[in-house]
Amino acid sequence: MKTYRTAIIAAAAAILLLVAGCSSGGSTSPSSGTSQPPAASASASASTSADAILIKDFTFMAPASVAPGATVTVTNTDSQAHTVTSDDGASFDVTIQGGATATFTAPSTPGSFAFHCTFHRNMHATLVVK
Ligand SMILES: [Cu+2]
Fold it and tell me: Ligand 1 centre and the CA of 69: distance in Å?
């Protein structure tokens, strides 16, 4: 019991010493000259793959063609979500949220695959696989 109390007193004394030491330190501005810029917007579009569909202003911009089984990246620059849905309802179907990117796998068989957006039935385009 006595040692416990002694320890508390010692701790209190140490804290007092620390506080005193700090306040007598003088200059209290630890601002070093290295101001780190906040994570620069490094959105350098590294994905310059040809296997890409761009959606802008409710319009599909499809590549001339993609290879069978290729991974097709869809970039939606609109604020609304869109889908890339094959008209046959089976070849591919992916939803791309507004301002987001998604991928789907192109059909493994060559051909022309008409597709649409299920949210906006006036959006149509064709994916050529060859
Ligand atoms: Cu749409």
Answer: 24
**At which residue do the structure tokens 């385009």 appear?**
125
Rounded to the nearest angstrom, the distance between the alpha carbon of 92 and the centre of ligand 1 is 15
Distance CA 121, CA 109 (A): 26
Query: How far apart, in whole angstroms, are the C-alpha atoms of residue 88 and residue 28?
Result: 70
Q: Give the pLDDT confidence score for residue 49 in this predicted structure.
A: 54
Which residues neighbour ligand 1 (ion) by CB within 5 Å?
A: 82, 117, 119-120
Please write the tens of the pLDDT for every residue from 16-72. Answer: 444 444 444 444 445 445 555 444 443 433 434 579 999 999 999 999 999 999 999
CATH class of segment(s) 52-129: mainly beta
